[in-house]
């Protein structure tokens, strides 16, 4: 058998939903769907049957504090990789029109680039 890995295969969730082991554009959420939320499509082609399974989403008004797009609790998640935060009193869509937000975002991008340059695995050669 193979060697036991140091990486835990047990899912880790924040707020009971986000699996931190998944890195990328596709994430699994821990949820149960009502019949109205489920989407099924069955196709047959040359004797083969294909089943597409998905989920229907319904946009609704916000039900908790936040900027109308992102709930306040999203900015309060505690995680070792979150180094800094900046709360500004602007709507979500117009956030980067605020000069303080622009400066914070630019500073953050510069700091990320500096950290990448320090990491031999991530840095590009000159």
UniProtKB/TrEMBL annotation:
This protein's name: Uncharacterized protein
